């Protein structure tokens, strides 16, 4: 009997079954890692893409539709939901759950209410969890997946595709109030009984100039300035950086000059009569999208092209800086005060007619901070 026990103790037959069993468990573990964890990582990326798309769509609606409408039925919330759940943003083949309550509006680090946050869900609480394949055998039949993204509508500090002519920024008209296109800026009236006009730049919280929300849809009829005085309807031709002459001037109207323009840049007036090149360039620009028009009901551009090439940026100059230059006996001194969006509607004789519209700009790291009153906006993901 003792000999039998010793033989059994030393016997290694059947050990292969132990190794096979351990290997089988390791195989199951590796399969779970390869299939379910891989699936969850893919789902995480897809959920984040959906959240990013929703946040950006909501920010676009804030900038271009209605910045102040934060309601559940408003364009910002509805665009965010629509973009997050559209067919191209499925999470493992199923649209994530996004409700109006999942779209919130938050302040930036400076306390400005210009951010929108979107949460997307594929979770048990929403009735759409992810189903696992191998995890089911380990009593984990489903998994939850959520993602969050935040986008903001920030003021821009630079612009491109700028038209080669400039108009004065808005001011407080005190001599013949209220401000209108027929006024003339005069901060130094010779008659002491007249009140000086007031201009406050975009760096101040009480900025007097054009506002993207308040002035959208305002029609401007631009006439060639004489250089002797300024009114809201007078424009001055500009030689953009690297450009000069009538040919470049016309090209810059019809096309997009990608030179970055910044706030407070000194602007170079184009010498000579630029009325003919202005009308020629504007008519060529209109021909690129002849069917575009301004819809007064929705207060925005309607076009089959997105965006329409007829939406351009007009540099706005500081009227006080100009007026000081005139007081000191100099010709028109032009300094960029802001950049407004401008939809070119057409021409009337030698005049250019258009509407003020929302526009986007750039954040140039080599430039200073964007002024609080910046008209162009930057739409970007921040989280």
Describe this structure in words.
The protein folds into two domains: 14-154, no CATH class; 158-375, no CATH class. Helices cover 26% and strands 23% of the residues. It contains six helices and 17 strands. It has helices at residues 2-10, 15-64, 75-85, 246-254, 275-287, 319-327; strands spanning 103-106, 115-122, 130-131, 142-143, 145-155, 158-159, 165-168, 219-224, 234-237, 261-262, 266-267, 293-295, 300-302, 311-317, 334-348, 351-357, 377-381. Helix 2 packs antiparallel against helix 3 (75-85) and helix 4 packs parallel to helix 5 (275-287). The chain is elongated. The protein starts with a helix and ends with a strand.
Strand order of the largest sheet: 7-9-8-16-15-14
* Beta content: 15-25%
Helix proportion range: 25-40%
Query: Which structural category do the helix and sheet elements fall into?
Result: alpha+beta
Largest sheet: 6 strands, mixed, barrel
Q: Report Rg.
A: 31 Å
Give the strand tally. 17
Q: Helical stretch count? A: 6
Number of individual domains: 2
Instruction: Enumerate the spans where pLDDT stays under 50 for 5 or more consecutive residues.
Output: none
N-to-C CA distance:
76 Å
Mean pLDDT: 89
- Give the overall shape, derived from the CA principal axes: elongated
Order of helices and strands: HHHEEEEEEEEEHEEHEEEHEEE
């Amino acid at each position: 009997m003792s000999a039998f026990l010793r033989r059994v103790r030393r016997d290694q037959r059947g050990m292969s079954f132990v190794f096979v069993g351990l290997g089988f468990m390791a195989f199951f573990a590796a399969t779970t890692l390869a299939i379910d964890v891989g699936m969850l990582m893919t789902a995480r990326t897809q959920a984040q893409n959906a959240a990013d798309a929703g946040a950006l769509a909501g920010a676009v609606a804030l900038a271009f539709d209605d910045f102040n409408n934060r309601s559940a039925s408003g364009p910002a919330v509805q665009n965010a939901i629509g973009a997050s759940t559209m067919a191209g943003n499925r999470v493992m083949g199923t649209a994530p759950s996004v409700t109006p309550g999942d779209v919130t509006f938050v302040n930036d680090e400076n306390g400005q209410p210009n951010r929108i946050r979107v949460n997307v869900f594929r979770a048990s609480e929403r009735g759409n969890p992810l189903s696992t394949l191998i995890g089911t055998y380990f009593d984990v039949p489903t998994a939850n997946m959520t993602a969050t993204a935040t986008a903001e509508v920030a003021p821009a500090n630079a612009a491109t595709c700028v038209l080669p002519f400039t108009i004065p920024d808005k001011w407080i008209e005190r001599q013949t109030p209220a401000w209108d296109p027929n006024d003339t800026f005069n901060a130094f009236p010779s008659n002491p009984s007249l009140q000086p006009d007031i201009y406050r730049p975009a760096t101040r919280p009480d900025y007097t100039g054009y506002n993207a929300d308040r002035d959208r849809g305002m029609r401007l009829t631009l006439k060639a300035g004489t250089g002797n005085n300024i009114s809201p309807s007078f424009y001055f031709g500009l030689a953009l950086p690297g450009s000069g002459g009538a040919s470049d001037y016309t090209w810059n109207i019809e096309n997009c000059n990608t030179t970055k323009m910044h706030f407070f840049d000194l602007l170079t007036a184009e010498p000579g009569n630029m009325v003919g090149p202005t009308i020629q360039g504007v008519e060529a620009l209109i021909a690129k999208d002849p069917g575009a028009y301004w819809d007064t009901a929705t207060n925005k551009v309607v076009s089959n092209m997105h965006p329409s090439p007829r939406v351009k940026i007009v540099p706005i100059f500081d009227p006080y800086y100009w007026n000081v230059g005139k007081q000191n006996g100099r010709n028109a001194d032009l300094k960029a005060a802001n950049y407004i969006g401008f939809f070119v509607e057409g021409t009337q004789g030698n005049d250019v007619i258009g509407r003020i519209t929302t526009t986007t700009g750039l954040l140039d790291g080599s430039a200073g901070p964007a002024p609080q009153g910046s008209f162009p906006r930057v739409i970007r993901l921040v989280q």
